[in-house]
Amino acid sequence: MSTLAREAWRRPVPRGVDLMAEDVEPAELAEARAHLPRASPQELAAFVLRHRECRRRLAALEAFYRSSPCRMARVHLLAASAVALGRFWGLSAPFAQLGEAVMPMDTAGQPRSKAWEAYAHACSEGLPIEVRDERWIDAHMQDVAKVREVGLEAAFLAEARAHEEEPLWRLLVQHLEMTLGARLFDQPALAGAVPGETAMAGGMALALGRMLRAGWSLLRHYAWVTARGLLFPRGVRGAGLLGDRQVAWVLLASFVTAWTAARVYRRGVRTLHRGQQVGPADSWPLLAATLGGDVTQVDSRVVRFYSNPGAYAVQASVELHGWGTRLFAWLATRLLGQGVFECGERALPARFRTFRRIDGSMHFVRELYCEGVLRVFDSDFVVREGRLYEVFVEHGLEVELEVRALERGGVSVRGRRVRWHGLPLPTFGVGVEFRAYPDESDPEGVAITGTLLRQSHSDARAAPRVLGVLRYQASRPEVSDRHSAFFGALAASTTRWMG
After folding, report:
1. How many beta carbons lie within 10 A of that of residue 118, not counting itself?
2. Domain check: are 233 and 296 in the same one?
3. Are strands 362-370 and 446-454 parallel, antiparallel or unpaired?
């Protein structure tokens, strides 16, 4: 596309500018006339060029997401193919600029920002789909924030007000309201006040509500143009341009698979109340509040770790002894959504994240990357009357923890009583104990060993049987970006396993 043509589709075309040198086909002009019956020849040519660019960018978008897939990518393809079939870029230059601004790649097909580079890297390394969704959401929210900052959304709405009596323009406004207009929580998410998945879930819920209340005309329009694209395709075919029938198939394929984004919605709802993610400087006096004066017996490195585990870079390893333990861990992971049953000698990349609830308590998320799957432990740590409790809010479970100082500056945290919605549950002699000691090989490191134990009913004096062991090696990273260190470890481990 020449410089003249590129400028034509991005802004209204001045009178007297000749765009016919761009070899606009008569059939394309006739189609443009059907959408803009009172337009000038220059405006019709601009319509054609913008629609051509839309089809070209959709082809590039489909190729980009084919090599870099995630669940949210299917939703983006669904919206982009619907816009192409509806000729919406052709109708409005500001609307075309909006669509171009939220493309993940530039005109050369390369990621257009560092956030999109991080997303593409996660896909190329085969990281878990939750990680890819997380990076997609982060990159997309940054794009939407820039769209609003530079005034593209406001420019389109100003143009739309001049055409508010025209049905097609009303459909454009409806489309914007159900996509960018539904994104009310992006700024809090970018500021860290709410998780990105929660912001996306809120946008999905708002968009669905608007669609059910007032979006039927837009849905009917998309159904009509999809059927027409399949049965009576129009438009000039060319290199790098998708035809109507191809676009319709992209839309249908995206529609069939876009339901998987419901998992992103459910994850966002679950994380709605987890609080605001904190930095390395934040802390909770968990050990001091539970040990009292005995906290002086605990090494300062261990005290700092329990004050904010999210400030540490972590690796983990899992051992499960016996098929019964593996079956129990598998059932717990499948039924509760928390846990890990993958085990072996190799170290697993892990990530600790801490959040501050509204009441000031710590919400603690432990993530383990297990051969392409993300395993999560997600709970609150609350101190009540000098006792430490681990609370699994989603499941209504509460575990009372016994905290005591150990020799060599260590600390033991052991589960004692379990309650479900306030009712005591039998433990059948099974318990979990975590012991943390300073790592002598790392001046700021801590080694944590979690043991799944079972006490014999027949002989209470016998040593408990070890069913499984979960080890964490935690160290304070030299850089503050712990997420980069975590994802770098994921990439390295994935490369090893795939190689």
Report:
1. 19
2. no
3. unpaired
